[in-house]
Please model this.
Amino acid sequence: MTTPAPLKPLPAVDLGLRPDVSAHFDPQTNTISYIVKDPASNACAIVDSVMDIDYAAGRITYDHADALIAEIEARGLSLEWIIETHVHADHLSAAPYIQQKLGGKIGIGANILIVQDVFGKIFNEGTEFQRDGSQFDRLFEDGDEYQVGQMRCFAFHTPGHTPACMTHVMGDAAFVGDTLFMPDGGSARADFPGGDAGVLYDSIQRVLSLPDETRLFMCHDYGPNGRDIQWETTVAEEKAHNIHVGEGKTREDFIAFRTERDAQLDVPRLIIPSLQVNMRAGEIPRDADGRPMLKVPVNGL
Model:
């Protein structure tokens, strides 16, 4: 059984500071990207952008990212941060494309080094692939604070789905990545390399230790039971109604459920291109001749 890691006290959530959150849903990957605006200025951040890929054709496009860029430009906003909540296995990040157009710093959790080491071996990356997180502008440690305009923000480790997962709190809004889904969606899988169901349970409890009124924003939603796509809930709603961890479900119950459930899940459709790109902060790897090129490890995952 996994021993829960000691928890670090979290900075206080400013429930009186309510950033404007604009959600952009990508139906191809069921990902929600966010533009988060500081209420006191024109500064903003993007959380979990998407780069479009037709994997069968080997073609990259930027329609989703262009929609984010168009909104920021139309509203006269200034992009300061491009946040990745984790190394996504189901969609490709558009962070460098957006940064080239609008500026801003790309940030991810400091445990990206673990992910780069694990998948650097799986994809047989050479010594030219740096495993020190240098592809990103900021590696967030647990409890690190930063600013979006005048809005104080902080990040804290919420591993279990992946080692590098972090939750980002901006004012009264927390962006949880894949740590949680909507209450009727439950939680994400924990069977990727470096994942751990017990650690994920502990991370969820950490998210649920935030004030009940904290707004929670999901990275994915799949419309369970045919309902419309949703992405916003609260800590109180998750504690009361989350089908995997709510209503007093124990750590042991969660581990047993998650282990059985994960064994039945298919590998994500875009995991092979996503991991190669996202561990590079959204850059597409290139072959010896400088051409964009993706690898397919056979029986490697």
